[in-house]
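[job 4471] stage=fold_predict status=RUNNING
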Amino acid sequence: MKPGRRTWLPLSLLVMLLALAGCGETVPVVPDKPARPKVPVTQTAREQVGVPYRSGGDNPRTGFDCSGLVQWCYGVHGYSLPRRTEDQLRVGRPVEREDLQPGDLLFFNVTRKRWGLHVGVYTGRGLFIHSPTPGAKVREESLYERYWMRTYIGARRILPDQR
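[job 4471] inference complete, writing C-alpha cells
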C-alpha cells in the first residue's frame, strides 16, 4: 500500500471490532435507508396519536402495541429497531433522565416482571408518546405522572442529534 493512502473498513467489520473492544451496553443502530427528510421522529410519533392499541400491532392501519409503535416510527426514518421491547432496551446508548432529548426511548417495568416492559418516545418537556393498553389509543402523557415515575427504568438514545 502506498504511504498516505487511507483504507476503509467495511461497516460490519467496524461494528464487530467495536463490539470486541468492549462497547458494553451500547449497540449501534445504523439507518438502512434514507431518513424521512427534515421531520423529527417525535413528529412521526405525534402523527400516530389516536391510532388504536392492537396487541402485536405494528402499523397505523391496523394499530400498534408499544414496541410496534416505536419500531414503526424509527423505521419511517430509516432505522431498523428490534420488534420486542426487551430487545429495544439494548439498542442505542443509555441516557440519564436529566439528559433526555426528544426522540429518546423511555422504558418502564409496568408489572415488575421481565415480560412487563413498556416503551414510549420522549417528545420533550416531560412528555412521551406511547400505545398504552388494549382498548386505548396512542397518546401523549406526562412522564411525571406518579405511575410513570414509579415504573420508569431508563432511557436509550438512538439518534445522535434528536433536537
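[job 4471] summary: The CA atoms of residues 36 and 131 lie 22 Å apart.
[job 4471] exit 0
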